[in-house]
């Protein structure tokens, strides 16, 4: 059986494990009880947000990580600033813990009913990560090939443009010569 206490708990190193509650019909003797804490709620007040919620950064902030570990140069950059909220001078993050007491003889197997599906999901995630990395490498190779072909493409277009210009000028020259021949032919015909 697991007891959950929904109160705000401060964790300190001098806490004593409680006795098993007598309301469970057991003797009021001291029984070894596993005590643990889980996060039940987080309240972020003026904490910087990029997109959506930033729980991980908020946890890092609460547990004393430096600002540069949270993608910020200075601690003051963690204060939210957006249009209409430029002059805020503080931010806060409150974390609420629930105290969990695992009593001896409890049905621990119920706590692990999702373990198999989580392991399967992790394996599938790793497989998908590998496939993604493979495809990303292919994309990078194709991009390099594309860049190398751009110069050749430009060279080919310049060649075709020059060939087209040459053909147009040759055509104009041949037409001029043809016109000259026609005129000479007409003059010769009249002279005869």
Automatic annotation (TrEMBL):
Keywords: ATP-binding, Nucleotide-binding, Nucleus
Superkingdom to which the source organism belongs: Eukaryota
Record-level Gene Ontology MF annotations: ATP binding
GO BP annotations listed: mitotic chromosome condensation
InterPro entries: P-loop_NTPase
Keyword Glycosyltransferase attached: no
GO cellular component: condensin complex
Protein name: 12529_t:CDS:1
């Amino acid at each position: 059986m697991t007891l959950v206490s929904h109160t705000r708990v401060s964790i300190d190193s001098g806490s004593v494990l409680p006795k098993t509650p007598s309301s469970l019909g057991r003797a009021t003797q001291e029984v070894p009880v596993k005590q643990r804490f889980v996060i039940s709620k987080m309240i972020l007040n003026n904490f910087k947000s990029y997109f959506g919620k930033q729980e991980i950064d908020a946890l890092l902030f609460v547990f004393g990580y430096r600002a540069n570990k949270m993608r910020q140069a200075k601690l003051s950059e963690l204060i939210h600033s957006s249009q209409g909220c430029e002059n805020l001078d503080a931010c806060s993050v409150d974390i609420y813990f629930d105290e969990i007491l695992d009593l001896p003889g409890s049905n621990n197997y119920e706590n692990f009913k999702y373990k198999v599906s989580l392991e399967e999901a992790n394996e599938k995630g790793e497989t998908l990560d590998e496939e993604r990395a493979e495809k990303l490498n292919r994309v990078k190779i194709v991009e390099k090939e594309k860049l190398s072909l751009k110069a050749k493409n430009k060279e080919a277009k310049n060649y075709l443009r020059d060939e087209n210009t040459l053909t147009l000028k040759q055509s104009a020259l041949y037409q001029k010569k043809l016109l000259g021949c026609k005129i000479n032919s007409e003059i010769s015909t009249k002279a005869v």
